[in-house]
Design brief:
- The complex is a heterodimer of chains A (233) and B (278).
- Chain A has 233 residues and is α/β, with parallel strands linked by helices.
- Chain A has helices at 44-51, 71-76, 92-102, 108-117, 131-143, 161-174, 188-191, 212-219, 223-230, and strands at 3-14, 18-29, 33-37, 59-64, 77-80, 149-153, 180-185, 197-202, 205-211.
- The longest helix of chain A has 14 residues, at 161-174.
- In chain A, the strands form 2 sheets. Chain A has a 6-stranded mixed sheet, with helices on both faces. A 3-stranded antiparallel sheet of chain A has the order 2-1-4, covered by helices on one side.
- Chain B is an all-alpha fold and 278 residues long.
- In chain B, helix 1 (2-43) runs antiparallel to helix 2 (49-87).
- Chain B has helices spanning 2-43, 49-87, 91-94, 101-134, 139-156, 158-190, 197-229, 234-238, 241-273.
- Classes of the chains: A alpha/beta (233), B mainly alpha (278).
- At the A-B interface, helix 2 and helix 3 of A face helix 1 and helix 3 of B.
Chain lengths: 233, 278
């Protein structure tokens, strides 16, 4: 297993005071599915943005496959943000062309297959799709890449349980097996079974880094239960 | 990657701009036709006076609005696209493409400038079509007169003419770049605001505009005072208007390009280091 993500003293502060991520030291190896867990405001999204180069660290470094975020790292990282980022005027087919144009590892046939399986019209404009369908289209685009690292920020938030199952199945069936998947979520029960590792963040600091099996062996409880204990108010 | 970004930007913007450009050209042709009809009616005496007057008034209102729409849209549309694509939710896609901020900026700037050139040509052609039918002045005659004038000066002082044309071309390209980057700078600075980013961008845009105007005026006044202090005879300088124009264009170019480079540097720096997507 090679190191895919390395954070060294990674810190992001806003207005020079509030530290959203504070002195984080972390490595993520390839071939793992990692749950990035923590309450609201714990720094999950800030960490994800720094991994994707959308935010610059205030202090410290983040390396993806040995280099700081740059066009190369973006070519190997497939990122699903927590919000709808696709232009409403575009059609689903336009988006598939767009992804195929920019990402060498994008598989249009795989994307089209999943779009058809969901019964979504590839000629439909994004603005005509329901919120759930938009989220599924985004996920399909992201998971149709043979990336080295998938970073999924709240992929199952705000969708019904049936859609959640579909999204988790899509992630598991489509990710490149040599790659790693970082999933940020509050809905631990839904994804617990597919996780290899978990990272607990609290106030921007690393609270726990362990495998799911270690938590079960050491504490005798599920990840969800342990999360509730650690973050009890 | 720059080519791909450029093609997608073009694909997303060409429809509305083509529609507006076509509207101006079609309305110009309709105007030319109306003038021809008017000539025929005039030759047969005064026929349907008020109706014709109403028709002309309505036509000119629509024609003026079409030119206004094209002129406003060629600036506004590309500012809005820059803001929406790069600094709203769509930025999460654009800034995670395997491209550099430089490529993102230039792909948008190139398309914006190409459309400025096209719309300029469309407006000039449209008005020329209308004028050639209405006041019996051919556009080609105007161009011919201009070329004749240039050739005359060229024969007198070829070097001065070549320098003048080069500087004028640079100034034309520079002023388009400056206009594009003035907007990009305002939008980029505005996105750093914690709320009301669009409003902040508009405020900063007008702030930049007013500041540049004030600075230009101060510079002009100061240079006049310096010249007066140095006892330079302005009337003597005006005896060689060609040289005056070249000096003026050279100073203009320095100003325009210095501001454009500053605008680009600010935009690039913010996009690379100070991105503030919510």
């Amino acid at each position: 297993m090679s190191v895919l993500v390395e954070c060294r003293d990674l810190t992001k502060s806003y207005n020079g005071r509030f530290e959203a991520v504070s002195g984080l030291n972390l490595t993520i190896e390839s071939g793992r599915i990692i749950g990035l867990l923590g309450p609201n405001g714990s720094g999950k999204t800030t960490l994800i943005k720094m991994i994707n180069g959308i935010l610059k660290p205030t202090r410290g470094e983040v390396y993806i496959d040995g280099v700081e975020p740059c066009p190369y790292t973006r070519s190997i990282v497939s990122y699903l943000p927590e919000r709808t980022y696709i232009e409403a005027q575009r059609t689903v087919a336009d988006l598939i062309d767009f992804f195929a144009d920019f990402y060498a590892d994008f598989r249009p046939d795989r994307a089209m297959q999943m779009i058809n399986a969901l019964g979504i019209d590839s000629g439909a404009r994004i603005k005509t799709l329901s919120k759930g369908s938009k989220e599924k289209v985004q996920l399909i685009l992201v998971m149709s890449r043979d990336a080295k690292l998938y970073v999924l920020d709240e992929p199952i938030a705000g969708v019904d349980p049936a859609a959640r199952d579909y999204i988790i199945r899509t992630i598991i069936n489509n990710y490149n097996k040599d790659a790693s998947v970082i999933i940020s979520t509050h809905l631990i029960t839904d994804i617990e079974d597919v996780l290899n590792d978990v990272i607990f963040l609290k106030n921007g600091r690393l609270v726990l880094r362990a495998t799911v099996d270690e938590i079960k062996d050491k504490y005798g409880v599920s990840v969800d239960k342990h999360f509730r204990e650690v973050f009890a108010c | 990657m720059l080519k791909k970004l450029f093609l997608h930007e073009w694909k997303d913007s060409w429809k509305i701009m083509t529609l507006l450009s076509a509207a101006v050209l079609v309305l110009s042709l309709i105007g030319a036709f109306l003038f021809q009809v008017d000539d025929v009616l005039d030759s047969g005496g005064d026929v349907g006076g008020p109706i014709i007057a109403l028709m002309y008034t309505s036509y000119f209102m629509v024609y003026f609005l079409s030119i206004l729409a094209l002129s406003v849209m060629v600036t506004l549309l590309f500012y809005i696209r820059f803001y929406k694509n790069l600094y709203t939710d769509q930025g999460y896609l654009m800034h995670t493409l395997p491209v550099t901020p430089k490529q993102l900026i230039w792909s948008k700037a190139f398309v914006a400038i190409i459309w400025r050139v096209i719309s300029g040509v469309v407006v000039v052609s449209g008005i020329s079509i209308l004028l050639s039918a209405g006041v019996d002045i051919s556009f080609f005659d105007i161009v011919e007169d201009l070329i004749d004038g240039f050739l005359k000066v060229y024969e007198e002082d070829p070097m001065l003419m070549v320098v003048y044309l080069i500087l004028a071309l640079f100034a034309a390209v520079g002023s388009m770049l400056f206009s594009v980057f003035k907007g990009y700078t305002a939008i980029s600075l505005g996105q750093m605001s914690s709320k009301n980013k669009a409003l902040a961008s508009v405020g900063i845009y007008f702030g930049i505009h007013i500041t540049i105007n004030i600075c230009t005026n101060v510079c002009m006044q100061t240079s006049m005072l310096i010249l007066a202090g140095a006892r330079v005879d302005l009337f003597e300088m005006l005896e060689d208007p060609g040289l005056m124009m070249v000096v003026f264009l050279a100073i203009l170019n320095v100003g325009i390009y210095a501001l454009t480079i500053a605008g680009y540097a600010i935009t690039h720096h913010i996009m690379k280091n100070r991105l503030n997507l919510e």
